[in-house]
Amino acid sequence: MPEIHVIDTHALLALPGHCADSSKIHLFFDGLTNQVASGALTFPSLVVHDCRAYAEGEIVHTWIKAVSAHRKYQSVDNGWLEEVLTQCEQLADIDDDQEQTPLSVGAMSLMLSDSGMDVRVVTEDRLELPNRICLFEACSTLGLQAISANDFLVKCEMEEFL
User: Fold this and answer.
1) Could you give phi then psi for residue 158, rounded to 5 degrees?
2) In Å, how far are 17, 47, 63, 93, 147 from 139, measured between CA atoms?
């Protein structure tokens, strides 16, 4: 069964902080680019939007713009968003009428899992908020495995950067 990692905004924004040697940051992102190119790493388009909103001008934003067109899986059918809401409505922030990235990450992960892939959700969204549960907790409700950004880097054999 092919393995794929679906990364959320929280984990993506945390990744540069995992590179212990800032002089190797470009090599670090080259390794991540290889993960995207091989189909082992993907993310919904809302993650790209979030990076622009929270990290414009930073290396993570430059990187995600460069690799986003090279993802093997880019979009999610609305039916999968409905499935996430059916199984775990507490993940939705009812006070936010915009599209919500945690829902898209969950939907993409369910879609890929349903197609026979071994999916891991890479998330640092681990604190429950007053208006929604965290993605880490929602993953267990959705039958998905969640891992940290650090665990993802180890799994991808990028420990040399930690």
Assistant:
1) -110, 25
2) 24, 17, 26, 16, 10
pLDDT digits (tens, 9 = 90+) for 16-73: 999 999 899 999 999 999 999 999 999 999 999 999 999 999 999 999 999 999 999 9
Cα–Cα separations (whole angstroms), residue 5 to 42, 110, 118, 122: 6, 12, 8, 6
User: Cα–Cα distances in Å, from 110 out to 4, 49, 57, 79, 116?
Assistant: 12, 21, 32, 11, 10
Q: What are phi and psi of 42, to 5 degrees?
A: -150, 175
Give residue limits of the domains in the chain: 3-161
Q: Which DSSP letter does residue 98 get?
A: S
pTM of the model: 0.95
Tokens 């409700």: give the residue.
Answer: 141
Which superfamily is assigned to 3-161 in CATH? 5'-nuclease (3.40.50.1010)
